[in-house]
Design a protein that fits this description.
Strand order of the largest sheet: 2-3-1-4-5
Number of helices: 10
Largest sheet: 5 strands, parallel
Structural class: alpha/beta
Distance between the termini: 54 Å
Strand content: 15-25%
Radius of gyration: 26 Å
Helix content: 40-55%
Length: 296
């Protein structure tokens, strides 16, 4: 199921994230935030409508609102059900995402973090879980999407949230290909660093010395050197594998640094060519930054 913004009134999508304590609400909220949703955790139910109305009046600044609710809220089920009906009547058509897990899994998760259940009181942990499950049963039956997280890792849960609530733009890996000169230091924000000083340096060719890696003569010189094409083919394939893995892990930004001596010739040409190849990949947006170009 993919949510279509056109289905929602006033240009604002509204999703209520709720479910059993320990079932993954916080992970779902962080994922929605990464996808561009405005997320509010544990807002009193009576304020939800007001917040959505303010979002609708924000002239496009807020288009997707996610409210995370749990049983700590006063009169949780009654108030929330009423607010959902009110929003629906106003044309917002709120969606309810309900997260749950088996008793065994919830007990294990609570024991791992050494926390008590919010409804446990003086009783046992299982008593609090049962009370919450009974309290939320009506809301679960009316939910638009129920996710059982018992067997899901954090990354698998993120993937399911992205499949449901993400757009092509929000699930795109944004790659920055950054050329630099080693003489000026390695970029501190680089995820991956590659050294292309194994290629002959155009600096020592008189007619190329004053040009840059953006110029056709330098580009032709660098790309026709032995090993240049093979390097690009293999490194491109490696980045495809890494990018796919980053997407599975929920990482959406990747900075690839390509270095040569001064950041003027080889690294610039290789960065431009690598970016051109990456731009043809699905779900990848690429930009090129030449950090040290012009410093010599």
């Amino acid at each position: 199921m993919t949510i279509d913004p056109a289905d929602h009134g006033q240009g604002v999508e509204v999703t209520v994230v709720t479910g059993l304590s320990g079932a993954g609400r916080s992970t779902a909220a962080k994922c929605l935030e990464d996808l561009g949703w405005f997320v509010v955790d544990n807002l009193p139910p009576e304020l939800i409508s007001t917040m959505v109305e303010l979002g609708a009046k924000a002239q496009g600044a807020v288009t997707k609102v996610a409210v995370v609710m749990d049983v700590r809220s006063r009169a949780f089920t009654e108030d929330l059900a009423s607010i959902i009906r009110e929003l629906d009547a106003g044309g917002y058509k709120p969606r309810v995402l309900f997260l749950e897990a088996t008793d065994e899994v919830l007990i294990r998760r609570f024991e791992q973090v050494r926390r008590g259940h919010p409804l446990q009181g003086d009783g046992r942990l299982i008593d609090g879980i049962k009370a919450e499950r009974d309290l939320l049963a009506p809301l679960r039956s009316d939910a638009d999407l129920v996710l059982d997280t018992s067997t899901l890792s954090v990354h698998q849960l993120r993937a399911k949230i992205e499949d449901t609530f993400g757009t092509e733009a929000s699930t795109t890996t944004r790659v920055t290909v950054l050329s630099f000169g080693y003489k000026y230091g390695i970029p501190m924000d680089a995820d991956l660093v590659m050294d292309v000083r194994f290629l002959p340096n155009p600096f020592w060719i008189p007619e190329l010395k004053d040009l840059t890696g953006r110029d056709a003569d330098v580009r032709n010189y660098v790309l026709t050197q032995e090993g240049a094409e093979e390097f690009l083919d293999r490194y491109h394939e490696l980045l495809r594998l890494i990018g796919a893995g980053y997407r599975r892990e929920g990482k959406r930004y990747l900075t690839v640094a390509i270095g040569c001596t001064g950041g003027k010739h080889r690294s610039v040409t290789i960065s431009e060519e690598l970016a051109r190849r990456l731009a043809d990949e699905d779900r990848v947006a690429v930009k090129v930054v030449h950090r040290d170009l012009g410093r010599e």
